[in-house]
Amino acid sequence: MATGTEPPPSTHPRPSSGVRGAGRAAIAAPHLRTDRWWLAPAATAAGLLAFIVYSTWRAFANADYYAAPYVSPFYSPCLAENCRPMHAGPNADVFGGWWGISPAIIILIFPLGFRLTCYYYRKAYYRGFWASPPACAVAEPHTKYTGETRFPLILQNIHRYFFYAAILVAGILTYDTVLSFRDEHYAWGHMGLGTLVFLLNITLIWAYTISCHSCRHIVGGKLKHFSRHPVRYRAWQFVGRLNARHMLLAWASLVSVALADFYVYLVASGVFDDPRFF
Amino acid sequence: MSVVDRQEWDVVVVGAGGAGLRAAIEARERGARTAVICKSLFGKAHTVMAEGGIAAAMANANEHDNWRVHFRDTLRGGKFLNQWRMAELHAQEAPDRVWELETWGALFDRTADGRISQRNFGGHEYPRLAHVGDRTGLELIRTLQQKIVSLQQEDHRETGDYESRLKVFQECTVTRILKDGSRVSGVFAYERETGRFFVLQAPSVVIATGGIGKSFKVTSNSWEYTGDGHALALLAGAPLLNMEFVQFHPTGMVWPPSVKGILVTESVRGDGGVLRNSEGERFMFDYVPDVFKEKYAESEEEGDRWYEDPDHNRRPPELLPRDEVARAINAEVKAGRGSPHGGVFLDVSTRMPAEVIRRRLPSMYHQFKELADVDITAEAMEVGPTCHYVMGGIAVDSDTAAARGVPGLFAAGEVAGGMHGSNRLGGNSLSDLLVFGRRAGLHAAGHAAAAATGRPLVDDAQVDAAAAEALRPFSAEAAGEEPATGPAENPYSVHQELQQTMNDLVGIIRRESEMKQALLRLAQLRIRARRAGVEGHRQFNPGWHLALDLRNMLLVSECVARAALERTESRGGHTREDHPAMKRAWRNVNLLCRLADPADGPAAAGPEDGRIRLERQTTDPIRPDLLALFEKEELVKYLTEEELYE
Amino acid sequence: MSSYDAHFRVWRGDVEGGDLEDFTIEVNDGEVVLDIVHRIQSTQAPDLAVRWNCKAGKCGSCSAEINGRPRLMCMTRMSVFDRAETITVTPLRAFPVIRDLVTDVGFNYHKAREVPAFVPPEGVGPGEYRMFQEDVERSQEFRKCIECFLCQDVCHVVRDHEENKTAFAGPRFLMRVAELDMHPLDAAEESGLDRKRAAQDEHGLGYCNITKCCTEVCPEGIRITDNALIPLKERAVDRKYDPLVWLGSKIRRRPS
């Protein structure tokens, strides 16, 4: 054949599109994979679902999110009048008294948006929830597909702005972690098990945030000539190394943020007292 | 019967490897409407297998390098049998051809100051090979392919048709060159996909089909290398030159059996890899021939120092030209000092950190890991000689790449002979493709323009004969012209026997009795190949394609065997056990192969008379200013007294 | 050396139809799937159509689907399979079949032509190109591509939706756009060609939902999604969805 692309005349028009469509090799099965291809999307979906259930409960609970000196990352910063007073904590009555429901909702928009538009999570939920595709070379059930070319999915492109917001949120959570070096009487120079949980969480949150593809682009990826920007080149390489583990960090930080919240919940609801080291 | 589709073109290029694409680009840029025909998909040519680099004296890595040094190395490597004018043009033009690739988007590895990095290779005095890791051939092909696409985009903007001036007919095979009297008038081809025949009429045809390796059992060559271009030229009346010179690359994989022969790039040695026998000895120090004694290190210490300080030390003998290394490995294995699977050890693991190996030899690392389950950063590779390249080929005019005796026929790349003499240096192949591909395209376009009035005509009888020949395998049992002598032959079995014959009897070390035996076997195979039959129909039928390719492989194999029998000396890629020395009297002798019966149709002659006639020819004396580049003492080893005094 | 008989199911047929055909065939130590297909061809089915070339993973011709996964036949070792397992080999399922294991990959050549070529910088002659290793490395990774088209085959955008073939270039050719956009000397912008915008407007970058199957199947291990497609999406964002840039362009355009 010449490099021309005239499709061969099809004599047996078959109704369906895709792998069983006209012109393609006539194979009835939507896929011939023999491995457990469904395991990864199923596990992903289960994991995400578990987090959604947990975080929805906690976000709307509007209770047990502060046990001095720890504030749940779900409620930080706390931006309404109905927030619990936290001594030198991340309180700022920006919204005032009209906000009636849980103040977590205000701030959770940002980390939620960051993760929702994250390039890794997109892959995870497109595969896990939307089966588009369920796994590689496994036919997807949808008859039409336009990807991220139109509303609403075209909005995925605003990931970068959520990244900026995520930096701010991570900064505040860092502040919260610093505050956790106090005891329940707000005296500095103490440390408990919760401090460790917070340290772990904030490390993973930063690692996840910094390893973001948008971050990689902004620090250096957008450049044409690395050789003219040696510092940004080094930064790009560093972010690139983290970025290679973006999936791992996405999951690890998701678990750690839930864990940090759950720890605060346990202490705040009096299940046990925070073990203090000093 | 001639109802086959016909198209008019100015230049038809047969083959879409480096030489073919470079020729097509040149011809199109010179204004000729150009068609390219290739057996595989566009961009899959065997050139992608080239790993090491493109030799060009750009002097980026060592400022002392220039074309004269490159010329000298090339002639030394070829043992002074090279068509010297080709070697001269090649050395002079290679840098321009490499730089031009950059303007088409190629991305070579860089030096610290931003120029093209150059690496060491066997037989090259200075680091000279422009490279991209160990996938230089892929970069070359992709760059040329993308340049073709960009020309097509230009044409599309102007004419609305991508293929108005430059078209690639992929997955098509040419089976005959058509002629109008002595002149080329076009090609007869079939589409592999459909089996449909077609004719491209053109006053100029460039043959750039590569080599013949598929006639040998252990080879680094792909299935395409069936000597098509060699056979097409022969059948069209053009002579082949010095077909006895076949290069066995010293380092092919030897295990597992299914990948036996696949290439292990010479860069492994260029970057520090060493050869050891089963006793752990670096045996190459024992195999430095007299003509190279002064140029190579005498101790391991000196050889090792050379990688860091090449100006004050001599290079290790692992970097001798390929023929020397291949023979040495062969001798070690014969002496019982081989590796478990019949090769020797090539080791980089003790010479470089694992990280460096993975960075500098990524595809070798990958290849051994995936295919042999060997981690080359931790253990030695097992390697042995593999049929790699044919130095012989279509006899061409050095400047124009025009085949001798057939106006309108041009040849470039591996299929053309002369450039590399009796042995090719690594890296000189890719530069050869570019330099002579361009020249072939240039002169083919010129020839076509000159023939604009009075284009040669395609003869219907030739088209009919070609069609009948191509259809023969479908009616093998009922072969009309001969008494039926049994059921149809399986083309795959004939092919396997041919490969075994060439490997065993006309291989790396040759003996008179064996080659005579080989000629007999080839004659028998020729008869059997005539009865090679196929099942099924013409649509993408590999059995049929192979049955047709057998004609070419048999013709070319006969050329190799006959020429090898004739040349009673050892030189470069031709080693005679019964005539182990290089003889100065043979230095200026070319062996030309021609079809014994020029009017030969598809029918084969009887078993005893071969189809090939040999002819001796004395080469042109080397131009004095070029000879002056060598020391007298060196020339004495190669040239006869008379040549020296002239 | 140990050899055994393996069970193979190979799809045979053409555009009119076809089916999986069973073969029992000898397998020896160290062999790959392509060796077995060749053995079937030389002993049981001489007209079995299969594309191949280098048999060393360098040319990208022998792409097929083995047990439902797009792979190169020459780089799939038999030792990865259980000896009792039946091995199914089919042609690429995203492209029109021609015969047996051979498909019409013309789609890819068509798309290759739609990507504007490298634009050489003005005033820089051959031999004067100066580029630094760190600047060429990104594009060099993409140029490792052997054009096996496994990424094009596995990508659900066209595999499952024939109608998207006109609008979507596929991972291989979006990667080509990225390669050129990251080329240190490409002068497309100076010549009025915006590759970042074209990636989205002409080559269908928005169809990609970064589900990474292209990266998963790439025999060269090119990180297509992370290093080419996502950076390209980010570059398109620079052009089209960055409100600051958008505002700037509005302000600059107003005086005219």
TrEMBL record, chain A:
The chain crosses the membrane at residues 37-57, 98-121, 161-181, 187-208, 248-268. Residues 1-12 have a biased composition (Pro residues). Residues 1-21 are annotated as: Disordered. The keyword Coiled coil does not apply. It comes from Streptomyces humidus. Keywords: Membrane, Transmembrane, Transmembrane helix. This is Integral membrane protein. It comes from the Bacteria.
Automatic annotation (TrEMBL), chain B:
GO terms for molecular function: steroid dehydrogenase activity, acting on the CH-CH group of donors. Residues 10-430 form the FAD-dependent oxidoreductase 2 FAD-binding domain. Residues 495-589 form the Fumarate reductase/succinate dehydrogenase flavoprotein-like C-terminal domain. Keywords: FAD, Flavoprotein, Oxidoreductase. The keyword Isomerase does not apply. Its cofactor is FAD. Residues 300-319 are annotated as: Disordered. SUPFAM superfamilies: FAD/NAD(P)-binding domain, Succinate dehydrogenase/fumarate reductase flavoprotein C-terminal domain, Succinate dehydrogenase/fumarate reductase flavoprotein, catalytic domain. InterPro entries: FAD-dep_OxRdtase_2_FAD-bd, FAD/NAD-bd_sf, Fum_R/Succ_DH_flav-like_C_sf, Fum_Rdtase/Succ_DH_flav-like_C, SdhA/FrdA/AprA, Succ_DH/fumarate_Rdtase_cat_sf. The active site is at R322. This is Succinate dehydrogenase flavoprotein subunit. It comes from Streptomyces humidus.
UniProtKB/TrEMBL annotation, chain C:
Pfam families: Fer2_3, Fer4_8. GO terms for molecular function: 2 iron, 2 sulfur cluster binding; 4 iron, 4 sulfur cluster binding; electron transfer activity; metal ion binding; oxidoreductase activity. SUPFAM superfamilies: 2Fe-2S ferredoxin-like, alpha-helical ferredoxin. Keywords: 2Fe-2S, 4Fe-4S, Iron, Iron-sulfur, Metal-binding, Oxidoreductase. Residues 6-93 form the 2Fe-2S ferredoxin-type domain. Pathway: Carbohydrate metabolism; tricarboxylic acid cycle. GO terms for biological process: respiratory electron transport chain; tricarboxylic acid cycle. CDD domains: fer2. Its cofactor is [3Fe-4S] cluster; [2Fe-2S] cluster; [4Fe-4S] cluster. GO terms for cellular component: plasma membrane. InterPro entries: 2Fe-2S_ferredoxin-like_sf (IPR036010), 2Fe-2S_ferredoxin-type (IPR001041), 2Fe2S_fd_BS (IPR006058), 4Fe4S_Fe-S-bd (IPR017896), Beta-grasp_dom_sf (IPR012675), Helical_ferredxn (IPR009051), SDH/FRD_Iron-Sulfur (IPR050573), Succ_DH/fum_Rdtase_Fe-S (IPR004489). The keyword Hydrolase does not apply. NCBIfam families: dhsB, PRK12386.1. This is Fumarate reductase iron-sulfur subunit. It comes from Streptomyces humidus.
